[in-house]
């Protein structure tokens, strides 16, 4: 979603978990980046996959 003004963007991201129509939503900011996912390998060692 792209906001037209800085004020609109600030208002939209003010609450990290807003309630919309009675349901809890999440706000994920792209500049924070993706968290690395840990996938166990067959040998039992941990392997990290980084999403870019």
If you had to describe this structure to a student in words, what would you say it looks like?
This is RNA-binding protein. It comes from Rotaria socialis. The chain is elongated and about 50 Å long. The model has no long low-confidence stretch (mean pLDDT 80). 15% of the residues lie in helices and 23% in strands. A hairpin with a 5-residue loop joins strand 3 (37-40) and strand 4. The protein has one helix at residues 6-13; strands spanning 19-20, 23-24, 37-40, 46-49. The protein has 52 residues and is an alpha+beta fold. The longest helix is centred in the first third of the chain and has 8 residues, at 6-13. 0% of the residues are buried. The chain has one domain (6-49). The strands form two sheets. It has a two-stranded antiparallel ribbon with strand order 1-2. Strands 3-4 form a two-stranded antiparallel sheet. It is built from one helix and four strands; from the N terminus they run αββββ.
Task: Give a summary of the structure in a few sentences.
The protein has 52 residues and is an alpha+beta fold. It has one helix spanning 6-13; strands at residues 19-20, 23-24, 37-40, 46-49.
Topology:
Elements: H1 6-13, E1 19-20, E2 23-24, E3 37-40, E4 46-49
Antiparallel strand pairs: 1-2, 3-4
End-to-end Cα distance: 19 Å
| SSE sequence, one letter per element | HEEEE
Q: Give me the count of strands.
A: 4
Number of domains: 1
Overall mean pLDDT stands at 80
Choose one word for the global shape. elongated
Sheet having the most strands = 2 strands, antiparallel
Strand order of the largest sheet: 1-2
Helix content: 10-25%
- Give the helix tally: 1
Class by helix and strand content? alpha+beta
Cα-atom Rg, whole angstroms? 17 Å
Low-pLDDT segments, ≥5 res? none
Query: What is the beta-strand fraction?
Result: 15-25%
Organism: Rotaria socialis
Protein name: RNA-binding protein
